[in-house]
């Protein structure tokens, strides 16, 4: 299975970063394609998109200022299959992408993604006090996986914080 394509450009409001593609995403070539993944519902219900997009429309998020990538490119059944070496390589690649494209905000879709990226153990939800790449805000949100035990309304409430930071990032 081939890694799925990143959707990146300069001047993004938000770059969403997941662990890695699911097997379904690897099969379809689209981000967050697993039918049990709630990413597209969360974006819409949090007011980040005016309608619920489908995974097949992932590239069109660029038109509204959002990008998509993963810390590890290889599709797997679950994040437990990702090796330490893949995280180490992915962390460095991700830092380079963020430094090159300079999105206003990087939203890590899962606390574990940010822990792997930052090397920090204690990570609160929401905006981080200190970012890894200077000039880019780091935001940690719950994973959109259907396996997450948080109630969807609690997850959506965290994602609803993002718009205020988009505005703040544009003022910088």
UniProtKB/TrEMBL annotation:
CDD domains reported for this sequence: UDG-F2_TDG_MUG
Boundaries of every Uracil-DNA glycosylase-like domain copy: 9-151
Entries under Pfam families matching the protein: UDG
Keywords, ordered alphabetically: DNA damage, DNA repair, Hydrolase
Organism domain of life: Bacteria
UniProt GO BP: base-excision repair, AP site formation
MF terms in GO: pyrimidine-specific mismatch base pair DNA N-glycosylase activity; uracil DNA N-glycosylase activity
Cited PANTHER family: G/T AND G/U MISMATCH-SPECIFIC DNA GLYCOSYLASE, G_T MISMATCH-SPECIFIC THYMINE DNA GLYCOSYLASE
Protein name, per record: Mismatch-specific DNA-glycosylase
The organism of origin for this protein: Pseudobacillus wudalianchiensis
């Amino acid at each position: 299975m081939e890694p799925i394509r990143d959707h990146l450009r300069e001047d993004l409001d938000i770059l969403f970063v997941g662990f890695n593609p699911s097997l379904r995403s690897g099969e379809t070539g689209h981000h967050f394609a697993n039918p049990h993944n709630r990413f597209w519902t969360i974006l819409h219900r949090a007011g980040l998109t005016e309608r619920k997009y489908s995974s097949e429309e992932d590239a069109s998020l660029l038109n509204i200022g959002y990008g998509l990538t993963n810390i590890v490119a290889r599709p797997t059944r679950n994040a437990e299959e990702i090796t330490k070496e893949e995280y180490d390589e992915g962390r460095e690649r991700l830092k380079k992408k963020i430094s090159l494209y300079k999105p206003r905000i990087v939203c890590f879709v899962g606390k574990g993604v940010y822990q792997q990226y930052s090397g920090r153990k204690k990570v609160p939800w929401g905006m981080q006090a200190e970012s890894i790449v200077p000039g880019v805000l780091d935001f940690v949100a719950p994973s959109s996986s259907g396996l997450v035990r948080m109630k969807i309304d609690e997850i959506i409430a965290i994602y609803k914080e993002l718009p205020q930071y988009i505005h703040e990032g544009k003022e910088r």
